[in-house]
Design goal:
about 55% helix, single chain, seven-stranded mixed beta sheet, Spermidine synthase, Growth Hormone, Chain: A, transmembrane helix, polyamine biosynthesis, Rossmann fold, alpha/beta
Length: about 650
């Protein structure tokens, strides 16, 4: 169940760019589907046997109706065979509905097996299985496996677990699984596609540019590797920072966002004696090694690092004559559970200050990209604050509403020879607590609000149809509050670890596994220890949240790596552990587990929506929201509280908040 959920989150976004900015759309659909499956666990109709057919339909639909951006800055999207893609109002509901159907079938299968075991033992096995699921997915990511590998794992597991009766349905399911594997194999066999831990990377040599390599990431034009001569002629902005440095003293250069190598090749051509090239995606780096016409990564003066840029700055003690933030635009999200892209923590006020700390006394900093007007003003204003000097703003071509620009500033003040110092409005900088540079103001975009509202309405309707009258949920209001709070706790853990240790797939996998291990530890404690009364557990939970809120993130960033990891683990996972004890104690005595689970599910989905409030408040304030939600859970559920030793919660009631 967890493996299929994670695979769908990543795979659908790689084929339909409309999902690139809708961070937890498929995640919420998965939660809803799992909930429907559990609500229908006692139903006469078998859903699990039909899950492969729903999965095949989803794979066929996504492959048949992709959405690809034709060119950066272009509003036009392209589907298969050059056709126009389906409208957003058609493609997204179909993807949502088919995802719900897939996960409902798997969820019902899990629920029916779960009921055969003593609850605590079943919960232990479920959590161990979830840990295996994230482990398998992480191994496949490490191996850069294409989607056919994910499909094979899912298909084989389905084939083992599917009921053999009636035989015709089993045969239909096997045919559907074969179709899934064939469809994913055809996509995986595309000669120009490679699968990194972050993207579907499509690379090809454009016929009108001999020697160049054009790269798409998740169906979005990402970068093009050009020879130096063509860069100088057609993309001169790469050379702008070197107008303001003494090339004779250009000893050490740091390039963050090195990609396929254009920026590194230019640095070498301008006399750099050593270049540290940092790129988070190993596939992009490999493409640059093999295909860049100037072969910059083969130069002995270059040291390549596969790492998150902010994390590299944490670890490195080296100082540089020139630091470049080179087109750091990942085009992809940190995880399906958060609103962050891979580079968000690289573009905050604190990150720019940390970069300055790595400059030599006479060093120079430059950043360049295609900026919307407010972004140019935001970054330029932040540099003005960090360096106490007005940056040089050299503008290039215009691409739709974005303007090519290079911002350069010296550690000692304004750069020399600047003919165009920045003059613009000062905007609030992005910060480590509010790392949303791409938001012009502190608000939730209208598109997000509309789609999330429709998702919640659809969820209420589906739960009503699957679980009966909603008035029965009223007695489980406290469980709804718990579901919302736990979802926010997990999100806060993901973004905190991304800041402290890097926005890499490996860090994300460790956080997911850490959440599951915390749940498993809570189960083991509940099995072996008589817990104190619920009021005491709630008090401990609120105390742990208060401590996590009181300790600022910048204090953790100052710690060495091992102490930082230890303190971060305690602050992040102590509330998660205690929350599981609280949930288990309450769920042990519910009158109707299906209705109680429906309340918890709707609460978790509301929590997924509430996560968007971080766009207004910042992430630290989410801990206050979590504390309020648990306080409301305590108040609304007081008449249900007992001091008896708990049994574990329904596994998916908690997994919905963990995965």
């Amino acid at each position: 169940m967890l493996l299929v959920e994670l695979a769908l989150i990543r795979w659908t976004a790689s084929n339909n760019i409309n999902l690139a900015s809708l961070t937890n759309f498929v995640l919420l659909a998965s939660f809803l589907g799992i909930g429907v499956g559990f609500l229908r666990s006692g139903a006469r109709h078998e859903l699990f046997g039909w899950a492969p057919l729903a999965l095949a339909a989803l794979v066929v639909f996504v492959l048949a109706f992709p959405a690809r951006l034709i060119a950066v800055g272009s509003p036009s999207l392209q589907g298969r065979f050059g056709w126009a893609p389906l409208p957003l109002k058609i493609s997204l509901p179909v993807i949502f509905g088919l995802t719900v159907a897939v996960m409902a079938g798997i969820g019902q299968g899990v629920a029916r097996v779960f009921a055969r075991f003593e609850p605590l033992e079943a919960y232990r096995l479920d959590i161990l299985g979830s840990i295996c699921g994230i482990g398998v997915f992480s191994v496949l990511s490490f191996l850069r496996a294409p989607p056919v590998a994910w499909g094979l794992v899912a298909a084989v597991t389905f084939a083992v677990l599917l009921p053999r009766r009636p035989r015709w349905r089993f045969a239909v399911a096997l045919c559907a699984l074969g179709g899934v594997v064939v469809g994913l194999a055809s996509e995986s066999a595309a000669p120009n596609d490679r699968w990194s831990p972050y993207y579907k990377v499509t690379a090809e040599h454009p016929p009108n540019a001999p020697g160049a390599l054009k790269v798409w990431a998740n169906n979005i034009p990402h970068q093009t590797a050009y020879p130096i001569a063509r860069l100088r002629r057609n993309q001169p902005f790469y050379f702008f920072p070197y107008r303001h440095v003494d090339r004779a003293s250009l000893g050490d250069v740091l390039v963050i966002g090195a990609g396929t190598g254009n920026d590194v090749a230019v640095a070498l051509s301008q006399g750099a004696r050593h270049v540290d090239a940092v790129e988070i995606d190993p596939v992009l780096l490999d493409l640059g090694r093999v295909h860049h016409p100037n072969r910059p990564y083969a130069d002995p003066r270059v040291t390549a690092h596969v790492a998150d840029g902010r994390a590299f700055l944490h670890r490195s003690s080296r100082r540089y004559d020139l630091i470049l933030f080179a087109l750091p635009d990942s085009l992809t999200l940190l995880a399906g559970q958060s609103n962050l892209r891979l580079e968000n923590y690289l573009l905050t006020d604190e990150a720019l200050r940390e970069a300055r700390d790595h400059l030599k006394p006479a060093g120079t900093f430059a950043m360049y990209n295609y900026y919307q007007p407010f972004l140019l003003d935001r970054y330029a204003g932040t540099l003005r604050t960090v360096y106490g000097a007005t940056p040089c703003a050299e503008l290039g071509s215009t691409l739709a509403e974005r303007r090519q620009a290079v911002l350069t500033v010296a550690n000692t003040g304004p750069v020399r020879g600047c003919a165009s110092p920045w003059h613009g409005r000062r905007l609030e900088p992005a910060t480590d607590d509010h790392p949303f540079p791409y938001l012009a103001t502190r608000q939730i975009p209208e598109l997000y609000l509309r789609i999330l509202g429709l998702v919640l309405i659809a969820s209420v309707v589906v739960v009503r149809v699957a679980g009966g009258p909603l008035r029965g949920l009223a007695r489980y209001t406290d469980l709804a509050f718990m579901g919302a709070a736990f979802m926010l706790l997990e999100t806060k853990s993901i973004v905190q670890y991304a800041l402290l240790f890097g926005s890499t797939w490996f860090v994300n996998s460790l956080v997911f596994a850490g959440v599951l291990v915390s749940v498993l530890a809570a189960v083991e404690v509940a099995r072996r220890v008589r817990l104190p009364g619920p009021a005491v557990l709630y008090a401990c939970l609120l105390g742990a949240l208060a401590v996590a809120w009181l300790v600022p993130q910048y204090a953790l960033l100052r710690l060495p790596a091992l102490p930082r990891f230890g303190v971060a683990t305690i602050l992040a996972f102590t509330p998660i552990f205690l929350a599981n004890l609280v949930f288990a104690q309450r769920f042990r005595d519910v009158g109707s587990s299906t209705t109680a689970f429906a309340a918890n599910l709707l609460g978790a989905m509301v929590g997924g929506v509430l996560e968007y409030t971080a766009m207004i408040t910042g992430y630290r304030f989410l801990l206050v929201v979590v504390a309020i939600l648990y306080g409301l859970a305590f108040v609304t559920g007081r008449r249900h509280l007992t001091g008896r030793a708990p049994y574990p919660a329904d596994p998916v009631s908690q997994v919905t908040g963990e995965t």
